[in-house]
Amino acid sequence: MIIDRYVGREIIRPFLTIIGILAVVFFSYSAAVVLNEAVAGLLPVGTILEYVLIKWLIALEVLVPVALYLGVVVGMGRLHADSEMIAMTAAGIGELQVAKVVLLLSLMVAVLVSALSLVVRPWAYEQRYLLQTYAEANFEIENVEGRRFYVGPDSRYAAYVDSVDPSQRSARKVMFQTKRGDKLRIILADQMYQPARLATEPVTLVFVAGHAYQLDGEGSRDVSLNFERLVLRVAGSEPEDPSHKSKMRGTLDLRGSDDRKDLAEYQWRLSTPVTTVLLALLAVPLSRSTPRQGRHLREVLALLAYAIFYNLITMAKNLVQEGVVGAFPGLWWPIALLALSILAALAWPWRGLLVRRR
Fold it and tell me: What single DSSP character describes residue 220?
């Protein structure tokens, strides 16, 4: 149908423009962050482009649904603002007919999002973890700058030093924090140095004259001590095997797992194509406007609605990870609320007719 193709074209144009802008902005931001880590010695220079592309692939499963959502708002909003929707309604083509076009388009995009979430996401996270652990296994103190905070791969360690002497492979006034499971260790030392090592030897740091604290996250077995010399192994000579991490495990491997983090990750991957379709449908009633209304009001409302939904589903995922919420309702309750909101918004113009019939 000519009208269906016309409406689809009005949505696809802003969708492609927005996804292009979002992709370029995120790629530039990620490149700036990764370049900073490379300059600080936390990542090998040769892996910069690979690491940025991996982060960009991971982000696409969120950027694509958002771009489609905003594309529907912008495209449909233009039809409302230019009174074309009024003309189509007069010709017998109402909002529900337009919603069918949006539904068909969103289903096609949801197929792409499914591939990104179910297949590309675990592969990209696996490559990301391998690069991070490789960088950790090749940590060198002479690449660190003074008076800056550094966070290691997967936030397993953090460090701050007042000054660095590259020739002596040492630093002064050091704060070093490591985390293993539920144990948090904080080291404050006057000096830290890194002994020379072979490529086959682990990364080891030696702290001189300081205090160490170990905090127990699940109990009261906290420990504190003073030391003259403390040796800490930061990483092995070979990259750590990250196969136990939920984000890099295959989708079929996550299915049926009893681990709450695996459950949250599994439900997140299944939910992304569903939210892609629902957000696109939500954009249909949000794009309603009259020629006299401000053209940017609908975009502001759409961004506000998306922010509320994204915060809710992120909170639901965290609740599942922490074991507060089980497999049901899991993180499906924000999606159910979104579906009910869509039904209410689409039915709102018919409320007067229903009242009169009663």
Answer: S
Burial of 154 (0-12, 13-18, 19+ CB in 10 A): middle
Which backbone phi and psi does 152 adopt, to 5 degrees?
-75, 175
**End-to-end Cα, the chain, rounded Å:** 36
The structure's pTM equals 0.77
Pairing mode, strands 223-235 and 203-216:
antiparallel
Strand intervals (E) in 85-193: 148-151, 157-165, 170-180, 183-193
Q: How far apart are CA 156 and CA 214, in angstroms?
A: 14
- How many angstroms from the chain centroid is the CA of residue 128? 13
pLDDT tens sequence across 5-23: 877 888 999 999 999 999 9
* Contact residues for 109 (Cβ-Cβ < 8 A; gap 6+): 64, 65, 68, 276, 280
- Spatial separation of the C-alpha atoms in residues 252 and 129, rounded to whole Å: 20
User: Which pairing describes strands 223-235 and 183-193: parallel, antiparallel, or unpaired?
Assistant: unpaired
Q: Where are the domains of the chain?
A: 2-135+243-350, 141-193+202-235
Q: How far apart are CA 153 and CA 145, in angstroms?
A: 18
